[in-house]
Specification:
Strand order of the largest sheet: 3-4-5-6-7
Structural class: alpha+beta
Helix content: 40-55%
Radius of gyration: 46 Å
Shape: rod-shaped
């Protein structure tokens, strides 16, 4: 005897001679089933490209647009995290490229802000200063107009409202009263509101108050009266006890 075991078919249980390579009853061939074709380079299908890598790369192309640059960086880091967990995926190069472009976009945006910010602040400061200067000039104009009016109308004294220094109130024989423009007489000019109050209980009127308060981002408030002294406060209305300008 050769000592070799007979071949039992695992499919039908038939005992076959040990030299058999195929079951004589059902035709099952175990040896041929185990033979695998040789593996050649490139025969293994590549893994899929990570979607975050693609998104990071595409957004990175538009790095000059700040939101796109921020998203490119965010998606790039998400892609690298997923690629480390699943090495079968591809797209590491796309993710790195997206990250680089994204960070470049963020850097360019920050640089532009640093360059533009001083000019923007200077422009805003100049605009505020222009409004404040205009308000002070308007107060002086009104003080001068009131002085002229009270001199020419000694029995009346100062006006009861700014409207008397502009518009129809200064036509004809009162033409010399036209020293205040209509916008200022209406109470608003150059981002300031002007509030005039005359003490008319006694005639002729000898006392009045005039406030100039900002309507916008300007912080300084002004006050004046028949003395002609302009007073100023910051962040709250000025009064007769405020320091002079």
């Amino acid at each position: 005897m050769s000592g070799r075991m007979p071949f039992f078919c695992p499919q039908c249980g038939t005992s076959n001679p040990d030299q058999s390579i195929r079951c004589q009853a059902c035709g099952y061939a175990p040896h041929s089933a185990q033979v695998l074709p040789p593996v050649t380079p490139g025969s293994i299908p590549p893994g899929k490209i990570n979607r975050y890598s693609i998104a990071s790369f595409i957004l990175g192309i538009f790095f000059c647009f700040c939101p796109a640059a921020l998203l490119a960086v965010t998606y790039g880091h998400c892609a690298r995290k997923q690629l480390r967990k699943d090495p079968s995926q591809r797209g590491a190069g796309l993710a790195i490229t997206g990250l680089i472009l994204g960070y470049v976009g963020i850097a360019v945006t920050l640089l532009a802000i640093v360059i533009a910010l001083p000019d923007a602040l200077a422009h805003r400061g100049a605009r505020i200063n222009a409004h404040e200067s205009s308000a002070v000039g308007s107060l002086r104009t009104i003080n001068t107009a009131e002085a002229i009016y009270s001199t020419e109308h000694s029995k009346i004294g100062f006006t009861s409202s700014l409207q008397e220094l502009a518009g129809k109130s200064c036509a004809g024989q009162y033409a010399t009263n036209c020293v205040v423009d209509g916008e200022l007489a209406d109470g608003t000019k150059s981002e300031y509101r002007f509030t005039y109050a005359a003490k008319t209980a006694v005639t002729p009127v000898r006392h009045y108050t005039l406030h100039a308060d900002p309507l916008g981002n300007t912080r300084r408030h002004f006050f004046t009266d028949e003395t002609g002294i302009i007073r100023v406060e910051t962040d709250h209305p000025a009064s007769a006890s405020s320091p002079p300008l």
